[in-house]
Design a protein that fits this description.
The structure holds 2 protein chains of 2 kinds.
Chain A: H1 3-7, H2 10-17, E1 30-36, E2 41-50, E3 53-62, H3 65-78, H4 83-98, H5 123-138
Antiparallel strand pairs in A: 1-2, 2-3
Helix pairs in contact in A: 2-3, 3-5, 4-5
Chain B: E1 2-4, H1 11-19, E2 26-28, H2 33-39, E3 44-47, H3 55-73
Antiparallel strand pairs in B: 1-3, 2-3
The chains are: A alpha+beta, B alpha+beta.
């Protein structure tokens, strides 16, 4: 596997082609706009929080394969998780993307994002959705989220 | 200067892939958000030529674009 295949793994290409949980969520109680104005990535994250959990989550928007796949993988993994577990996953994925130390364990499919750490300019693509999630879970989203 | 898009492959992905061939292109909004909105495109790729470019650079760009098509369309 060369470095490009390491970045564009099958899981990433598949989630880019057929994003999961794509579309608006009418009963969301958090709607977060996330943008990277320099590159043009735009994402709206819909989150329904209830009983201390992410009961439902979806997204829509445009972006590169890394950004769409990361958003799709995130919604798949986060749906049904407690808020505390969601924040814990945010930290793990952040560690995975920015390459501080060994890649965290138990990431399952999310480990497909590991190739991104070799491409510093693409880290912001992969982390946009996760920052939007953090904003939803902590309720800190008066301003649009950006990773630029 | 040549601005272009490839169906189904975002400009940033093109940028990363041709970079592996040693070719630097610009991708995204090009600091021209209003015109991108006018034409309804999210992002474009843009290759520019300078005095020092020759045919081998164009060949490398093309081989990078072919690689992108292989990766994304199989």
């Amino acid at each position: 596997m060369d470095e490009l295949q390491e970045l564009y793994r099958e899981v990433i290409l598949d989630h880019n082609r057929r994003p999961r949980n794509f579309g608006a969520l009418p009963d969301a109680n958090h709607v977060i706009e996330a943008v990277n104005p320099l590159c043009g990535d735009k994402l709206t994250l819909y989150v329904k929080v209830g009983n201390g959990r992410v009961e439902d989550i979806s997204f829509e928007g445009t972006g590169c394969a890394i950004s769409v796949a990361s958003s799709s993988l995130m919604t798949e993994r986060i749906k049904g998780q407690t808020l505390a577990a969601s924040l814990e996953l945010f930290d793990k994925v952040h560690g995975l993307l920015t390459g501080a130390g060994e890649p965290p364990e138990d990431l399952d499919k999310l480990a497909a994002l590991a190739g991104v750490r070799e491409y510093p300019t693409r880290v912001k693509c992969a982390s946009l959705a996760w920052h939007a999630l953090k904003a939803a879970v902590t309720g800190a989203h008066r301003e649009p989220v950006t990773t630029e | 200067m040549l601005s272009f898009v490839i169906d189904g492959i975002h400009a940033h992905d093109l940028g990363t892939i041709v970079d592996r061939e040693g070719v630097a292109i610009r991708t995204g909004h090009h600091c021209a958000m209003p015109v991108m909105e006018r034409f309804g495109v999210a992002a474009t790729a843009r290759a520019s030529f300078a005095l020092y470019n020759d045919r081998s650079d164009v060949d490398r760009l093309m081989s990078g674009l072919k690689r992108a098509l292989e990766l994304f369309r199989g």
